[in-house]
């Protein structure tokens, strides 16, 4: 729902579209995305591991 209006605004205003592309292309943004992906992955992994260990200890 949120993506569509942003895309329509970007399509109607080339400056914003260019700014979005520059942001997506920038190294800092890519590094941040990789960092966030790794952080979320680590969090999910630790949660799953904790659930497996807790189930294993009960049985």
Topology summary:
Blueprint lengths: L2 H10 L1 H12 L1 H32 L1
Helix pairs in contact: 1-2
Can you characterise this structure?
The protein is mainly α and 59 residues long. The chain has one domain (3-58). It has three helices and no strands. The chain has helices spanning 3-12, 14-25, 27-58. Helix 1 crosses helix 2. It is rod-shaped and about 60 Å long. The relative contact order is 0.06.
**Helix count, DSSP H or I runs of 4 or more residues:** 3
> Mean pLDDT, as a whole number?
79
> Can you write the helix and strand succession as a string?
HHH
Radius of gyration: 20 Å
Overall 3D geometry?
Answer: rod-shaped
- Low-pLDDT runs of 5+ residues are none
- Give the fraction of residues assigned to helices: over 70%
Beta-strand content: under 5%
Short description:
This protein has 59 residues and is an all-alpha fold. The chain contains three helices and no strands.
Core attributes:
mainly alpha, 59 residues, rod-shaped, 3 helices
